[in-house]
Amino acid sequence: MSFWIINLITAMLSFLIAGISGFKIVPFLHKLKFGQPIKTEDGPQWHAKKQGTPTMGGFMFILSTVITSIAGYWIYRWKVGADMTNPENHYAFYRLLACIVFASLFGLIGFIDDFIKVSRKNNDGLTPIQKIILQVIFAVGFLFALKKFGDTSTVIDLGFWQSPPLNIFYYLLMIPVIIYLTNAVNLTDGIDGLCGSVTFISMLIFTVACSILKQNEISYFTMALAGGCLGFLLWNLNPAKCFMGDTGSMFLGAAVTGVGLVLHNHLFLLLVAMVYILEALSVVIQVIYFKFTKKISPDHQGKRIFKMTPIHHHFEMSGFGEYEIVITFSLAGIIFGILGIITLLVFSR
Questions:
Q1: More exposed terminus of the chain, fewer Cβ within 10 Å: N or C?
Q2: Which residues touch 198 (CB under 8 Å, ≥6 apart)?
Q3: For residues 60 and 115, is the Cβ–Cβ distance under 8 A?
Q4: Mind listing the pLDDT tens digit for each residue in 276-302?
Q5: Is the pTM of this model over 0.90?
Q6: Residue 107 pLDDT greater than 90, yes or no
Q7: What is the SS3 assignment for 153?
Q8: Number of compact structural domains in the chain
Q9: Neighbours of 15 (CB within 10 A)
Q10: Which candidate, 97, 104, 10, places its Cα nearest to that of 59?
Q11: Residue 292 sits in which domain range?
């Protein structure tokens, strides 16, 4: 049984589990009254009609990903007959587990945040400092696990340029990278179907990279999550019957970042994650520009570059429909992903 057949089986199982589980999870969330509080200052005014849509739907793809990624790995071991006397095969499985646990722990942060919000019936969940502390702890744990399970390189690999070994400074640099990227994915979850669609594309690109880099074990995680995202989109495309919540978006953020770091090709990760990076960067640019213009203007009135951030809201305010934005951003993800694959083919020889 070939690499791609096992991956297709994994993705299909994950798709079915995620899609079918929605028939239980969505009514259950309705019953618990776990509706999403909407702050209109965080998005266009017309988003107010989405008030009360069940949140925490990310459990659909979290459940399907955890189950089927491990199942896919065991099918691979059974059919391929991996030599488990080779320590590297053990390490490969442990790195797969590290990705699953890392994503699940960030999903736990999101769940706590979501639970506080729905309990209080407002958008005040964990404080920013509480989130950062938990994210740093889990990021350190993940980096330690990668080092323990065979990834001892502290070189930043940009393909055309590789840094000298950075030792401890590599890990100190990767911690803010993890925090930025995971929160960037979280910011992308602001329109029905957007984060799930972009992440579906990202995971397909990651699977191709796993094949090129001979990281077959990790591909069962990426394809499981791709299938899970597709199953979730049955419930999340406009008009959404359920939101993934921070439970889902934080899981996705850690999954994207974790897989990218396991593959240890930083230029590739940068390109695959470019849509998320630009989403977060639009917020940073908007805040800096607003504060700067407010400081220098005579009337102390700040100016804005975008109509609203993250940038998907700028597109909304400019007249784009939600489906148009999802398609546009997904196409951008495909283009950046293809560029990433090209860099792997050129520089990984």
A1: C
A2: 188, 275, 276, 329, 330, 333
A3: no
A4: 999 999 999 999 999 999 888 877 788
A5: yes
A6: yes
A7: coil
A8: 1
A9: 23
A10: 104
A11: 3-347
